[in-house]
Amino acid sequence: PGHETSSLGTRGSKNYDLKNSNVVFYGDSFVESNAFSNDTLPAKMERKSGMDCLNYGVGGYGLDQVYLLFERTHRQFDPAQSIFLIGVTDDELLRTLLRVRQCAKPYFTVNNSTATLQTGHIDVTDPQRYFTRYRPKFRLFALNLLVHEIKPLNRALMRPRERARDARLKKIVSMLVEKFAQSGAQLRFVIFSDWRNNLIKSELARQNIPTIAVDEFLSKRRVGGNISPGELDVTGHPSTALNEVIADYILSQLKKT
User: Fold this and answer.
1) At 129, is the pLDDT very low, low, confident or very high (cuts 50, 70, 90)?
2) Dist CA 92 CA 58 (whole Å)
């Protein structure tokens, strides 16, 4: 209840006319929103602006899955009338490294600047097949548990692992940003949070893709003391009240550009 789907496959309680669509918003659960369909972040933007704002957010998606959904759907909209917003969170970036979450997911590998989409491990007729074929080995699990418990050893090994992970993540994010840029669509990336030293912001700047830095706006707002109680709900997502503020900010930035 309260999670309706429109005729275009977006989250919403009304159907949309492709000819009238102005804002198309992709992302993870921060876009999808932990709220009833008529009270999501895109729905608030729609009411405030009078423009259609389609909610293509999907909870739990990585940036790779967001790109694949964008690539599959964005051409149905009139490019002269549509602005495409891509919401980004830390978790969304990190999920690009996963080949499985609740079930097997598509992912990209990057070799010599060549990106390859990997889907061979996905069985749509049996989503749990991955777990039976790629079951973790107990010895490896036990070894990792032992290393984790030996704190000095864990600290010594963690930094190289983190560096390797960050380097791999940077390659994938760079490739995905380039793919978004090659679409030729009017893009704005809405940054709710950015992993380690503005990882995606630097790639977006390199591709001359504008950003709407919600994270920086909220940080300044908190420093200024303009904080309302319950800004985040129990899941860590923006509350309804905070999404009102975020909707106003995003619309103000769109007007500037």
Assistant:
1) confident
2) 11
Following DSSP, what letter does each residue of 180-202 receive, concatenated? HHHT---EEEEES--STTTHHHH
Please, what sign has the CA dihedral across residues 241, 242, 244, 248? positive
Average pLDDT in the 192-217 region?
94
Distance CA 11, CA 65 (A): 16
Which one, of 52, 56, 13, 42, lies nearest residue 244 by Cα? 42
Which DSSP symbol is given to 62?
Answer: -
**Pairing label, strands 107-111, 211-213:** unpaired
Q: Which two tokens stand for residue 200?
A: 């995606």
Tell me the C-alpha distance between 42 and 22, whole Å: 12
Tokens of 104: 């097997």
Nearest Cα to Cα of residue 89 among 187, 199, 192: 192
pLDDT one-digit tens code per residue, 59-83: 999 999 999 999 999 999 998 899 9
- Could you tell me which residues are beta bridge partners of residue 36? none
Q: Are 115 and 182 in contact (CB under 8 A)?
A: no
Do residues 223 and 118 touch, judged by C-beta distance below 8 A?
A: no
